[in-house]
Design brief:
Elements lengths: L17 E7 L12 H25 E11 L10 H7 L2 E8 L26 E7 L2
Parallel strand pairs: 1-2
Antiparallel strand pairs: 2-4, 3-4
Length: 134
């Protein structure tokens, strides 16, 4: 489903369980136009919180053996988001890394949070696949 806010509970999905929760290129948009160190730190913090929200909400809608797929660019500053540790801290374990293949998502068109309308290179993006630990 599109349009789900992962920072809020999912009461409308309370009776539904899914095999996969997929979030390609999550980003809060914080710090996109400011290049200061403070803006970078705010961006990192807000995006780590976003990842925490994805993992926490995924727990409420996944089947017991369901999987979470989160795709991120593998370049700086995305590497500072520490996705594997975020997953671990939220009760998940990484099971594998996959190359992101946009063709697997019919009609997928990558967009950016930057207001510049620029093209973003996602050719080296990776999908992190997590399962609930234990």
């Amino acid at each position: 489903r599109k349009g789900v806010d992962v920072t809020k509970p999912f009461p409308h999905l309370a009776d539904e369980k899914f095999d996969f929760v997929i979030f390609n290129f999550p980003h809060t948009g914080k710090g996109q136009t400011d290049t200061t160190e403070a803006a970078l730190q705010e961006s990192i913090s807000s995006n780590r919180n976003l990842l925490d929200g994805i993992f926490e909400r995924a727990k409420t809608v996944l089947h017991p053996y369901g999987r979470v797929h989160i795709t991120l660019k593998t370049t700086w500053p995305y590497t500072l988001w520490d996705i594997v540790n975020r997953g671990t801290q939220n009760g998940f374990e990484l099971v594998r890394l996959l190359d992101f293949t946009p063709e697997e998502f019919f009609g997928y068109e990558h967009t950016t949070t930057r207001p510049l309308g620029m093209t973003v290179d996602i050719s080296r993006a990776r999908t992190y696949e997590f399962v609930l630990a234990g």
